[in-house]
């Protein structure tokens, strides 16, 4: 497995889609631990991210990582699975 360092990661939603009602959590440390435990593959859920920051709303996830000397970003909706070892958009 490549060495992966999470630079930032957030998980949250806009309550009822209202732009000034965002609720999100910093999940950087949580994500780093999950990447190590699960060999780079993480399912983005309320349980794995440490809670539900915006009850009743579909959450979104975003992260930026360093892998093999390059920076990648990831984004998805809750319930999706990401392979941080192989995927991502190169910055």
Question: What is the element layout, followed by pairings?
Answer:
Blueprint: E1 4-14, E2 22-26, H1 28-37, E3 41-43, H2 46-49, E4 60-67, E5 70-77, E6 81-83, E7 89-90
Antiparallel strand pairs: 1-2, 1-4, 3-6, 4-5, 5-7
Task: Provide structural commentary.
The protein is of the alpha+beta class and 91 residues long. It has one domain. It has two helices and seven strands. The longest helix has 10 residues, at 28-37. 24% of the residues are buried.
SSE pattern, N- to C-terminal:
EEHEHEEEE
Residue runs with pLDDT of under 50 for 5 or more positions: none
What's the β-strand tally?
Answer: 7
- The outline comes out as globular
Number of helical runs? 2
Radius of gyration, Cα only, in angstroms? 13 Å
Ends apart, CA distance between termini: 21 Å
Could you tell me the mean pLDDT?
95
Q: Roughly what percent helix?
A: 10-25%
Strand fraction: 35-45%
In the sheet with the most strands, the strands line up as 2-1-4-5-7
């Amino acid at each position: 497995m490549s060495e992966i360092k999470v630079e930032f990661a957030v998980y949250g939603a806009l309550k009822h889609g209202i732009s000034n009602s965002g609720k999100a959590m910093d999940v950087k440390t949580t994500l780093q631990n999950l990447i190590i435990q699960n060999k780079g593959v993480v399912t983005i859920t309320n349980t794995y991210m440490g809670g539900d920051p915006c009850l009743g709303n579909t959450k979104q996830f975003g992260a930026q990582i360093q892998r093999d000397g390059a920076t990648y970003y990831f984004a998805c909706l809750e319930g999706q699975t990401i392979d941080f070892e192989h995927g991502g958009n190169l910055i």
